[in-house]
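Aim 2 progress. For MFS transporter, AAHS family, 4-hydroxybenzoate transporter, the working sequence is reproduced below.
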Amino acid sequence: MAQHKVSMPASRIDVRQELEEARLGGFHLRLGILISLILLFDGYDLYNSAYIVHYVTGPWGLSPTRIGIMLSSGLAGFAAGSAISGLLGDRFGRRKILLLGCWGSGVMSLAIAVFADNLALYIALRVTMGLALGLLMPLAVTYINEIAPTRSSNVFTSLFFSLGWVSGSSSAGLIAAWLTPRFGWQSLYYVGGISLVFALAIQLWLPESPRFLASRGRWDEVKSLLYRLRPERAAAYDVGEFAAAGTVSHRSPLGRLLTHEYRLRTLSFWAAGALSLFSAYGLSGWLPTIMLKRGENLSSSFAYGSLFAGMAVAGGLISGFIADRVGDRRRVIALSYLLGAAMVALLAWATDRTTTLIAVAGAGAFVVGSQIVLNNLVATAYPTEMRGTGVGLFLGLSRVGAMFGPAVAGILQQWSGGPGIMFVAIGIALLTTATLILTIGPSQPHVVVTNAH
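Predicted structure tokens for this construct:
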């Protein structure tokens, strides 16, 4: 049945508008920190496999192709988990599925540390762990965009995404350089098990998304959260009636993604995300190994990996800041990917340490940093009732590209005898990503009523 629009009665309080017009306050910051904790171990666990290659290549008899498959194994599970997370989050709520992912990934990290003693078992456990991790990022991105005030949405979402996910991914190399020579590669996964402590904090303190609550007509819970997000409006909430802005449709969220209204942006998002993460994970997975082959020692090679991930914080925040002021994320993201392609070319040609440092830092800022703002663009491109599904499928299909990144990079290097052709493939992928982003039309605000009480 076709969707229809209903007008917003003037006497009712629009929950979407209340959230978007809020000033940043302490409760926003606390929620942002909780989301950061979720993303911290998500980033850490996804990147740490790159730092065990040095230790298991000999004992497990790994060729470059097998190394690529090992690095891609967790991403295969991540892709599957991401693809279903949004559907589950739109059906059961953001909070429940986030908790499932937190507890599941912590348990599986400990299982890898204790039981993985060969490639086949490592891959089996890593895929299972990836399923749990895949539940986290789409709904964390969805959640933080659903509470972000419009005037600072890009900086707010980029900051807490970076604080969590990028801090986790960049710390993996530093922790590996310190722990693995002393305690073995398994120590990386014992550290990952600490996420169970954070899972308990999430269980205790993270409320459900106010936009999801509004879409379900759970107005008492909405009112309670709005009291904390906008305490200056408490008197209005005491006497007002609430309504949720969005689109009324009897179609499933999955079906709506490919309707005429959303088809072009959905397909463009999927392709851009896959190519973006093909590039990011192809680089991050192989960077420490390439640096070792260029004559760097183990610690400095791991440090390059951390620099690559860590510079995404700067890239995401700079792009987010500019996007808030320009008002058009698409052009900012496209330019950032073009700069990322230039940095990959510089890395391919670098022969001295200074140039290599600049290239690695720039690639991290403009390849991974661009992805952070792209995530936010996707989250704002769909209305609440299909946002989780839209973001989840975007990240799930993007992770197909991520899965192929390290594997294809390994095959290309084994075929050509060096990393040069890998850098060419990644540069082409980034240029194509920038082009796809520019094909996406500007998002229209979703301003029609779905429910009122």
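The first helix runs from residue 15 to 20. This observation will guide construct design in the next reporting period.
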